[in-house]
Write a structure and sequence with these properties.
mainly alpha, globular, two-stranded antiparallel ribbon, 19 helices
């Protein structure tokens, strides 16, 4: 009995160390250009896989300690973890030499790998393993109410830091360099290489911030009667922690507007309206609160503050997009030179994705190799003057081209399961914090699903890692019919 106590304590300390290490990694990931460099991807993989190994070794050492079996039995994300592990195995299989496939002529005798660029696929595999480890750590460690709040606050705090830095640099109107990469002051980028990627990161952080607001406002809330009670409730709200979160949401929305991202702002608005309507239908307790938050975000953040910081420039970009449609070259046309100063239309943005669809019949199931789009795409654009494209500007097409329909199906299954769990966790039979988590997860998925149609946020390591842990939060909520793991507070301070 005495010998088992230190082992249980060792497991507990290892879990605490891994939990705060995971939070630090999530905050670090956006800083070095969204971790879009080989060394930063390797660092993410080493740290996250190392933390997972630490927890596993401590669990093996404390296997006979009281409570170890109970901790293992509470793990309920075996299904999505198996899907993600299968995706990682698919990427790893692309590096293994396989017998060549005959393409109408005599097949070569030498076995070759499926990947057309093994170096890029190895780098992609490192990122996949990092996301797999982060998913496992999140579902394994974020089980208690306090850890859930700290986890969501860490992601929101990282978003606030990025927003503050982006606003300061944008307001200073100066050019700067980060890791030898030059930046101009035309759009807010923060520490990301592209303003659209900062917009995607802001969408996820705003979604979790909205979830925190709903979790705090839904717990122990009581409908005020009379103007005195309403005035007291308003004063209490302005002096509470909920007001701090609300102000942080305003800051992140300001940064999102300053990115001038057309689809980023449109995805947030559409997802906000959709999430508010679904939340109002699913939960009677959150109906008034959800509608109030949606209206306040639309009116105060988007209309009032947006007009102050330049929302009309985002609208001007959208109008310029449709105005330049006639000048967009299509397949078979003679190449016409583009004007120097004009907005790229949606049709032009999607040209690479349309030509990339030609890659699917060539290798429909296993793709050309993870992270190899920039190498494999060149022969499929033909003589069209598309120029150089390192990404398809459409995550769905690029994932299908890199890892085939099999890889796209595995990832879509994980996202679909998380969306389903979040949708069914918005009911009134769940604790307030669980409903808030569900709203944040649902809105983040909707934002990235819309934004991914014209951009490649999921190819940016920091955004892919953040999106993975948000999906993992869906399995940190108690399932229906079980005793809730998160305790609803009766009194909200």
């Amino acid at each position: 009995m005495f010998a088992t106590v230190p082992r249980a304590l060792l497991l507990q300390r290892a879990e605490v160390l891994a939990f705060y290490g995971l939070l630090a990694t999530l905050i670090w990931a956006p800083l070095p250009l969204g971790s879009g460099r080989t060394w930063s991807i390797a660092l993410l993989a080493i740290v996250l896989c190392g933390l997972l190994t630490l927890v596993w070794l401590a669990a093996v050492w404390a296997a006979q300690a009281p409570g170890a079996e109970r901790a293992v039995s509470r793990y309920a994300a075996a299904g999505p973890l198996l899907l993600l592990a299968s995706y990682a195995a698919l990427v790893a299989a692309q590096l293994v030499p396989w017998p060549p496939l005959a393409t109408g002529g005599a097949a070569a005798e030498k076995a070759v790998a499926l990947s057309v660029d093994p170096f890029a696929t190895r780098q992609y595999l490192m990122l996949t393993l990092a996301c797999l480890a982060a998913f496992f750590l999140t579902t394994l460690l974020v089980r208690e109410e306090r850890r859930v709040r700290l986890f969501m606050l860490a992601v929101v705090a990282s978003g606030v830091a990025q927003a503050a830095l982006a606003i300061v640099l944008f307001g200073a109107r100066v050019d700067y360099q980060l890791l030898f990469m030059p930046f101009s002051s035309g759009r807010a980028t923060g520490t990301f290489a592209n303003a659209d990627h900062l917009a995607g990161y802001m969408e996820m952080c705003i979604s979790l911030g909205l979830g925190l607001m709903l979790a705090n406002m839904g717990a122990g809330a009581r409908l005020a009667r009379g103007w005195r009670e309403r005035l007291v409730a308003l004063l209490q709200f302005t002096m509470s922690k909920k007001m701090v979160v609300r102000l942080l949401l305003i800051l992140m929305v300001m940064a999102l507007v300053m990115t001038r991202s057309r689809m980023g702002n449109a995805a947030l608005l559409c997802s906000l309206l959709l999430t508010g309507c679904i939340c109002a239908v699913k939960s009677r307790q959150l109906r008034r609160t959800a509608l109030w938050l949606v209206v306040s975000l639309l009116v105060v953040d988007v209309v009032v503050i947006g007009q102050w910081i330049g929302l009309e420039q985002v609208i001007a970009r959208i109008e310029a997009t449709s105005a330049e449609r006639a000048a967009t070259p299509v397949a078979g046309d003679v190449a016409t030179p583009r004007p120097q100063q004009r907005e790229e239309s949606i049709e032009e943005r999607l040209q690479a994705a349309r030509y990339a669809l030609r890659m699917l019949p060539e290798r429909p199931w296993f793709g050309f190799g993870g992270g190899t789009f920039y190498t494999a795409f060149a022969p499929f654009k033909g003589e069209h003057p598309l120029g150089f494209y390192d990404h398809a500007h459409n995550d769905y097409v690029e994932i299908a081209a890199d890892t085939g329909l099999l890889g796209l199906g595995l990832l879509a299954a994980v996202v679909g399961l998380a969306l389903w769990r979040a949708l069914h966790a918005m009911g009134d039979n769940r604790p307030a914090q669980t409903r808030g988590m569900a709203v944040g997860i649902f809105m983040a998925i909707c934002c990235l699903a819309l934004h991914s149609t014209v951009d490649f946020n999921l190819q940016i390591p920091a955004n892919a890692l953040t999106f993975t842990v948000i999906l993992a939060l869906a399995w940190c909520m108690p399932s229906r019919g079980r005793r809730p793991l998160l305790r609803q507070r009766n009194v909200e301070r």
